[in-house]
Amino acid sequence: DAGVIQSPRHEVTEMGQEVTLRCKPISGHNSLFWYRQTMMRGLELLIYFNNNVPIDDSGMPEDRFSAKMPNASFSTLKIQPSEPRDSAVYFCASSSRLAGGNEQYFGPGTRLTVT
Amino acid sequence: SQQGEEDPQALSIQEGENATMNCSYKTSINNLQWYRQNSGRGLVHLILIRSNEREKHSGRLRVTLDTSKKSSSLLITASRAADTASYFCATALIQGAQKLVFGQGTRLTINP
After folding, report:
1. If B7 and its partner were Cys, which of A7, A115, B1, B22 is the partner (CB 3.0–4.6 Å)?
2. Which of these ranges, A93-102, A105-114, B36-45, B56-65, has the smallest mean pLDDT?
3. pLDDT at residue A101 is higher than 80
4. How far, in Å, CA of A4 to CA of A49, rounded?
């Protein structure tokens, strides 16, 4: 299995621009998570989906952030408009209840820099 | 406040020594997991211990869980330079829940 795939790996953009991060979970996994990691705040859960349905988006910082999961193999996290404080590494992770546990498998992350 | 809090925040030891990291949490859990993160990479699952288990082993890893004290420890024996990474504990609060609550992590440095 290829594991969780994220793109792009690095993104540098100017303040005010729209940013779209993409994630392909492990095939067969029914839960998908978006995290943000910074030195100051550590690893924060932004939103997670079960069976393509958003379950908990309480971690989404503000309305500038939105996430979608149109099907079981694809999710996006969009920031519009982006701000310098959004600079962080964004991770996508997936898990499968059917596998008997809830271990999460993380992608390599997208390092976002907003100037 | 954090559900899982690791202690210490940073640990530096010599290669070959054992490394012990601790995690405390606040509410009842279904299971507790440990993850490793190498610099610039995603987290990697290491081991899961359920609330009705007290100890679990995986290779050079030993995890203990004390639900009465709401704490867990991760022991890495005979450490190697490649063990240098950040280690996170994560708790699952209810059975069947896919959501995990991660702590802030312990930064482990193994000196050759």
Report:
1. B22
2. A93-102
3. no
4. 15
How far apart CA B30 and CA A31 sit, in angstroms, is 18
Top residue of B34, B95, B98, B99 to mutate, by most chain A CBs within 10 Å, is: B98
For A104, nearest residue in chain B (alpha carbons)? B45
Q: Select from B48, B88, B101 the Cβ nearest to the Cβ of A103.
A: B48
Within 10 A of B21 (CB to CB), how many other CB atoms are there?
23
Which residues have CB under 8 Å from B62's CB, separation 6+?
Answer: B55, B56, B74, B75, B77
In which band, very low, low, confident or very high, does the pLDDT at B5 lie, cut at 50, 70 and 90?
Answer: confident
- Residue written as token pair 């209840």: A97
Strand partners, A81: none
A51 torsion bin: left (phi>0), alpha (psi -120 to 50), beta (else): left
> Helices then strands (H, E): number in chain B?
0, 11
A52 in B contact zone (CB under 8 Å):
no
B98 vs A contacts (CB less than 8 Å)? 31, 33, 48, 50, 95, 97, 102
Using omega within 30 degrees of 0 as the cis cutoff, is the peptide bond preceding A84 cis?
no
Mean pLDDT of B68-73: 96
